[in-house]
Design brief:
Largest sheet of chain A: 6 strands, parallel
Number of helices of chain A: 13
Order of helices and strands of chain A: EHEHHEEHEHEHEHHEEEEHHEHHEEH
Strand order of the largest sheet of chain A: 3-2-1-4-5-6
CATH architecture of the largest domain in chain A: 2-Layer Sandwich
Oligomer: homotetramer
Radius of gyration of chain A: 20 Å
Shape of chain A: globular
Largest interface: A-B, 42 and 42 residues
Structural class of chain A: alpha/beta
CATH class of the largest domain in chain A: Alpha Beta
Number of domains of chain A: 2
Number of strands of chain A: 14
Strand content of chain A: 15-25%
CATH topology of the largest domain in chain A: Dihydrodipicolinate Reductase, domain 2
Distance between the termini of chain A: 16 Å
Helix content of chain A: 25-40%
C-alpha cells in the first residue's frame, strides 16, 4: 500500500511497554522505529546497551534498532524532523510532568499516541479503543484549536484491565441491549506492572488482591470511552455502573476478568449474545488495519476457557477471548473474558490507534 | 481435661485430605488416630508404605501412624471396637456409594464426620460450620430415628470454597444486617483438587477459570447452613441470593474470595462492619474447643491483604482473614476474604465439628 | 520443491508429543497429517473430540485435523495406503509392546520415526540427531535385511534431556578437541512428563530432584549417538564419560543443563570454543531442510542467559542456546545450555529426522 | 538456665534477613530484641510502620517489636547500653562502608554477628558454621588485640549457597575420607536476593542461570571454613577444589545443591556415608544450644527427596536434608542436598553462632 514506511519514535523505549513497541513494530508494514528516547540514564547509549539486562521480549532486539542512540525524552529539539509521530511509553514520577512532556511534543507539531494514564481525563484528549469509539478522534481538532496546535495532538488508549470486557459489553449495547450494572473481578498478569515490577516473593505460591489505582481506572474509564464528542471535549456516558476488584496473579501476560452483568431492560438469550460477539466487526476490520484482529471477540465453548497461557496470543494478541457465558441468578449473565495486557492492552492497542489516525488523515 | 484420648479412625486416609487429618490430629488433646482405612490397593500395607510417594505434608508421618496397617474402608466388620468415631475423607467414583458406605458405619453404631459432598443435601444430615449453625446437630436424633440408628450418625462439613466468606456474612446477619445479594469470584488453591489433582502444565503461567461443580455448591450450600431445624430435617433459608465464579490459581493452599454484597434494608457503616467481624465469637470459642480459633474473623487494615502465603496459617489455619472492605458503587460493600482450604475448609473444620459433637454429648 | 505433500500419520496423536506434531506440521511444506491414531479410548472419535480438554498447544487445532477420525493405533490393516510414513508418539505401559507395534508398522512397509525410548537400544535402529550422526541412517538397510523388511524401518530420536549439550560437545569433538569427562545437572521442564504429568502440588514453590530413568538415558544415549555404523548395527563410542543429575523445575518448556567438561588432551581457548559453536553447520543446514535451524548453536554473551522463557523458541525451537562459558577450576570449562524439549527434543527433532530420511531416499 | 534474657539489637532490621531475625528470635530463651536499626529512611518510625508493606514473614510482627522506634544504624552513640550484642543484617551499597560500620560497633565494645559478606575475607574475623569450625572463635582474641578492641568483635557466617553441602562434606572429612574435588550446581530460592529482589517476570515459567558473585563465594568460602587458626588469623585449607554453578529457581525458600564428589584416597561405601551423616553430631548438639538441630544432617531414602517445600523446615529450618546418594561414574559419588537459606543459611545460622559465642564466654 505504501511506498515508504513512516519514521516513528518510541519514547520510554527501554521499559517493558517500550520494548513491546520495538518488538511489535519490527515488521510493521507502515511504521518503522527510527528514534528511541528514554531517561537521562540511557542518553547517548546504544539501545542494545541501554536495555542490556532488562530486555524481556521473547524475540531478540531487531538488528536495525540495536544501534539506535537513545535520545533523552525531554530533548525534543534534537528529534529527527523525519519523525511523523511518537508512541509514548514514558513513565515519570509525576503525572503532571508526563502531561507537559506529551503536550510539548504536540506543540512541536508531533502527534503523540500514549499508553500513559496522565491525559486520560483531559477532556479534549480522546481515549480510544478503535473497535468502540473511533469517532472520538473528532475531538482532536477541538484539542488543536483549544491549545493552538497545528498538526500535533495527544491521543491515548485506556487501561489494560478493562480491555477484555469492553468490546463484549459494547457489542451488546450496540445491538440494543443496554447494560445497567457490572460487577467485575480481575486476575491480572505481572507484566502490567513493568519490569522489575512485582517481586517474585509476592508471586510464588501467592496472589495479591490489590493493584494501586487500578480499580478506580476500571470503574471510570469506560464512561469516557462510551461517551460522545461534545463541543469542548468528550462527554461521559454514565448510564452504566461498574464495580471492580483487581488482583495480581502469577501469570506473565494476559488479564482475566470474571464479569457479572445486568441489563437495563431487554435481555438477550444466551445464543443471541454469543452470536453478537462472534459477528461483531468494526472500523478497524472494515479498514483492514494491519494490527486489527480479524474477529475482535472470540467465543470458546470449552468450559475451562479462556486461559491466559492458551488464549492470550489469539490473533496476534489483539483479539479478546470470552467463555463461560451462563445465566446469573443475581444479575442476568456472567462470563469470563481475557485479553493480552501488553499487546491489546498496551503497545498493540496504541499501534491500532495510530493506524486508525493515519487512515483518517490525522497523521 | 480427659484421662485418655478417644480412638478414632480416618477412612480415605491416604489421600490429601486424609493426610491432613493425620497431620492435624498428631498432637490432638482429645483424639488419637488408631485406625486408617483406604481402598483395596492399600489394604494390608503399613500406612507409611501406602502413602510412600504421595505424602504431601510439610511434617513427617507421625511415628505412631507409620506402622498402622491400612484397612479396606468397606470392611467395617473388622474395625477395632474401641473406635469411637470416623473421619471420612473417602472418595469413590459414585456419590451413591459414598452415601451408602458412610451410612453403613452409622448403622454399625459409629458416628461419621465427613468431608465428602455426598450427604450434604441429605435433609436429616447436618452440614455444620460450628461458629454458624451449631444447633443443626439437633437434626441428628431425627436422623437416628428416621433410619433406626442407635448411636451412629452422619454429619458433614460444607465445601471449602465458601468458608472464607460464610463467617463474615453470618456475623453481619446475626448483628441484624440481613444480606440480600452476593456476587463472589474465588481464586482457589490447587490442594483443593487433591493429589495429583491439577496438572502443573495448567498452573505454570496460567489460571483455569473453571472448577467442576464448585459454583453450584457455592451458591446452594449457604442456604442449608443458614437454615433451621425442622421436623424432618433442615429447612433451607433462601432469603439470600448468591452468584459465584470459581477459578483455579497457582497457589498451594488458601482460597481467596472477592465478594460484593447488598443488604436487604439496613446498611451498617464500614466501622460497624469491621467491629462486628473483630468481635464475633461463637459456641466453639465459648466452649474453648481445642481447634477453635480464638478470633474466627481477623480483619487486616493493610490494603494488599489478605494474601494466601501470608494469611492462610493464621490461628493454626482456622481463622478467616478479611481485608479491603470498601464501598461498592453497584452493591453496598465489597471485600476480600481468605481461608485455608485444607484446614478450615476440610480436615480442621471437621475436627472442630467432632469437638463440638463430643462436648454436646453426641459422641 | 514438491508437487504434493506426503500424507503422514501420527500415532499417539492425542498426547502432548502427538499434539506437538499436529501443531508443528500444520504448515509443513513437505508433509501433511492425514491420519491420526491413539488408544481404543479415542477410537472412532473426531480428533477434536478426542483431545477436547487435553489440548495444550498455544495454537488452535488446525481445521483440517479437527475432523479426522481417530484410528486405534494397533489397527494397522485399516491404515490409508497413501500414508508414506508414521510419526510415533505412542506410549504404552510396556516397552516391549511399543517395540512390537513399531516393528509391525515397519513390517507392513511403513517407515516409523519414533519419540519413544523403546527401540533406542536396538542395535540396528538408528538414534539420530541430524546435525551429529546423519550417517547412522546407513544402518537402515542392515535393519531391513536382518528383519526381512522391504521399505519399512524404525528410526528413533534420543531423549530430550541431552539435546542441549550434545551439539555443543559434538562440534568441539569434530574440531579435534576430544571430551574426556562431563558432569551435568539438568533443570527440566514439566512438559517432558506429558499431560497431566507432574502435579501442580509438586511444582508450586518447589523442585523435584529426580526424574525416573532420565539419568541413565542421559549417560548412555550419547555413546550410541557418537558411535559408528558396524556390520550388525551401531557400535557405541565409550570414550566419553558422562555423569548426570536430572531435576524437575516449574518451567513449561525448555530443558536447561549446567555442564562441566574436561578434555582428553588439547584444550581450546574460550574464544575458539565460542567460534566453533557459532560457526557449526551440518548436513541439515547444507540440505536446507525445512525444520533445520539456520544456526544450530547460538551463543549469548549476556551473563544471565540462556533462560527458558526467553531462549527456548530461538529459530522455531530448533536451535540450542548456550551461554556462560567460563574456566572451570576442577575440569576445564563450564557452561549452561538450553533446548526446547518438546520441539528440538521431541516432535521437531523427529520431523528433522524425517526430512533427512526423505532427502536421502529412505522414505 | 538464665534469669533474664539478654538484650540484643538487629541492625538492618527492616530487610528480609532482618525480618527473619525478628521472627526467629520472638520466643528465643536467651535473647530478646530490644533495639532495631535501619537506614535513615526508617529512622524515628515505629518498626511496624517502617516495614509496613514489606513484611514478608508468615507470622505477624511480634507485639513487643511493633512499637520499637527504629534507630539509624550509624548512630551508635544513642544505642541502649543494655544491648549485649548486635545481629547485623545491614546492606549498604559499599562493602567498605559495611566493614567500617561493623568495626565501629565492635570498637564501641559491642560484639557484631553478621550476615553480610563484607568481613568474610578479613583474616582475623571468624566465618563460622558451629557444627564445623567452632574453634575458629579463637581468632577473636587475635582480632581484639590487632585492633585494640576490649570486648567488642566481629564474627560472620558464610554464604547461604554452601550450607547444604558443607556439613555433609565436613562430616566425611572428619571421618577420615578426604574430599579432593567437588562439582556443584545449585538451584537457589528467591528469598536469597532479599525483597523485592528477583522480579516475578524472571521467575514465572523461567529460571535464571546466574547469581552475581555467588559462584565465587561458593568456591572460596569453604577454604576458610575448613582452615585453621594461625597466629595472625585464619589460614585457609586449599586441599579441596570446588567448581560451582549457581542458578535461581522459582522457589520461595530452600537452596538445593546437586553435588558430585571425588575423594583423595580412601573411598567409603554408600552405607558408611549414610551412617556418617546420620550419626554426625558436633559442639552445638553437645552444648544443647537452643537453635541447634538435634540431627544436623538428615538423610532421606525416598528417591525424589529432598524437596524445598517438604524439607526446608526440617528441625526448625536448621537441619540439612540430603538424599539420592549414588555412585558416580565420573567422580566417586553424587547426591542432592538442601538447606533453608534464610534460616540455616542466614538468621538461624547467625543465632546459632551467637549461642555458641555466649556459651564460650565471648559475649
Amino acid at each position: 500500500m505504501m511506498r515508504e514506511k513512516l519514521s516513528v519514535s518510541v519514547i520510554g523505549a527501554t521499559g517493558i511497554v517500550g520494548q513491546n513497541y520495538i518488538k511489535l513494530l519490527r515488521n510493521h508494514p507502515w511504521f518503522q522505529v527510527t528514534d528511541v528516547a528514554a531517561s537521562s540514564r540511557s542518553e547517548g547509549k546504544s539501545y542494545a546497551e541501554a536495555v542490556r539486562n532488562k530486555w524481556q521480549m521473547s524475540v531478540n532486539i531487531p538488528e536495525n534498532i540495536k544501534n539506535l542512540i537513545v535520545r533523552e525524552a525531554h530533548d525534543i529539539d534534537s528529534i529527527d524532523p523525519q519523525i511523523k509521530f511518537v508512541f509514548s511509553a514514558i513513565n515519570l514520577p509525576s503525572k503532571e510532568d508526563v502531561k507537559e512532556l506529551e503536550l510539548n511534543y504536540a506543540r512541536k507539531g508531533i502527534p503523540v499516541i500514549s499508553n500513559n494514564s496522565a491525559h486520560r481525563w483531559t477532556p479534549d484528549v480522546p481515549m480510544i479503543i478503535p473497535e468502540i469509539n473511533p469517532e472520538h478522534i473528532n475531538v482532536i481538532p477541538i484539542q488543536q484549536k483549544n491549545r493552538g496546535f497545528s498538526k500535533g495532538f495527544v491521543a491515548v488508549k485506556p487501561n489494560c484491565s478493562i480491555q477484555s470486557y469492553m468490546a463484549p459489553i459494547y457489542s451488546l449495547q450496540k445491538a440494543g441491549y443496554k447494560v445497567d450494572k457490572m460487577i467485575v473481578s480481575t486476575l491480572q498478569a505481572v507484566s502490567g506492572a513493568g519490569y522489575p515490577g512485582v517481586s517474585s516473593l509476592d508471586m510464588i505460591d501467592n496472589i495479591v488482591p490489590f493493584i494501586g489505582g487500578e480499580e478506580e481506572k476500571s470503574e471510570m474509564e469506560p464512561l469516557k470511552i462510551l461517551g460522545t464528542v461534545g463541543e469542548k471535549g468528550i462527554i461521559n456516558d454514565d448510564s452504566i455502573k461498574i464495580s471492580s476488584t483487581c488482583t495480581r496473579v502469577p501469570v506473565t501476560d494476559g488479564h482475566t476478568a470474571c464479569v457479572n452483568i445486568k441489563f437495563q431492560e431487554k435481555i438477550p438469550s444466551k445464543d443471541e449474545i454469543i452470536d453478537i460477539w462472534r459477528s461483531f466487526r468494526a472500523i478497524p476490520q472494515e479498514l483492514s488495519l494491519p494490527y486489527a484482529p480479524e474477529q475482535p471477540i472470540i467465543y470458546l465453548e470449552n468450559e475451562n476457557r479462556p486461559q491466559p497461557k492458551k488464549d492470550r496470543d489469539n490473533d496476534k494478541g489483539m483479539a479478546v477471548t470470552v467463555g463461560r457465558l451462563r445465566k446469573d441468578q443475581v444479575f442476568d449473565y456472567k462470563f469470563v473474558a481475557l485479553s493480552h495486557n501488553t499487546i491489546r492492552g498496551a503497545a498493540g492497542g496504541a499501534i491500532l490507534n495510530a493506524e486508525l489516525l493515519l487512515k483518517k488523515g490525522f497523521i
